[in-house]
Amino acid sequence: MPLSIITFQDVGTALKKPAEEVGDIGRPRIQKLIDEMIITMYEKDGIGLAAPQVNEGLRIAVLCPNPNRFEDYRTKKNEALILINPTIIRHSILKEESEEGCLSVPEFFGVVKRWRSVTVAYLDRFAKKQTVKGSRLFGYCLQHEIDHLDGLLFVDRTKKIYHAQKL
């Protein structure tokens, strides 16, 4: 069963606060949260979801492993990328603009300038240190979800926001 996603209108929630690092990753509560976040991301047709979006103030994010192949990801639910305590350790010099939306800002989009590529260090669900490099859409997703863990929404980074109906 999917979790409830909180929106930018929900005051006093974890959404606009920096999330806390996860200590004991093996706790059943953490593992259950990860599984529920993956289900929620896919059920809500998202390509990424951070714990603050489900009102959990923890540094956990799940991402579709290949958002460039959007039409295939729903059939590969057990292939989600799980990032615990992620940190951007390298990034490109170049930035570029891309259109972004968010499950926590439904029906709105904005143009955000992000690094073209990033390398992220994180722990997987088994507490093993990992790195992942992402460019273009996947890189933007990594940055977007890490922003959530820092208490930021894409609307905090855009100069112009517009409603989906005006597309």
How are the SSEs ordered, and which strands pair?
Blueprint: H1 28-43, E1 48-50, E2 60-63, E3 81-91, E4 95-102, E5 105-115, E6 117-123, E7 129-135, H2 136-149, E8 161-163
Antiparallel strand pairs: 1-2, 2-3, 3-6, 4-5, 5-8, 6-7
Task: Considering the chains and any ligands shown, give keywords for the structure.
Peptide Deformylase; three-stranded antiparallel β-sheet; 2 helices
Question: Overview of this structure, please?
Answer:
- The chain has helices at 28-43, 136-149, and strands at 48-50, 60-63, 81-91, 95-102, 105-115, 117-123, 129-135, 161-163.
- The strands form 2 sheets. It has a 5-stranded antiparallel β-sheet with strand order 1-2-3-6-7.
- It is globular.
- The chain has one domain (14-166): Peptide Deformylase (Alpha-Beta Complex), CATH 3.90.45.
- It has 167 residues and is α+β, with helices and mostly antiparallel strands.
- The model has no long low-confidence stretch (mean pLDDT 90).
- The protein contains 2 helices and 8 strands, in the order αβββββββαβ.
Major sheet size, sense and barrel closure? 5 strands, antiparallel
Within the largest sheet, what's the order of strands?
1-2-3-6-7
Fill in the CATH topology: Peptide Deformylase
CA-CA gap between termini? 32 Å
**Mean pLDDT score:** 90
The CATH class: Alpha Beta
Q: What structural category characterises the helix and strand content?
A: alpha+beta
Q: Bin the strand percentage.
A: 25-35%
What shape does the CA trace take? globular
Q: What is the count of helical runs?
A: 2
Please state the CA-atom Rg, rounded to the nearest Å: 15 Å
Count of all domains: 1
Order of helices and strands: HEEEEEEEHE
CATH architecture: Alpha-Beta Complex
Low-confidence stretches: none
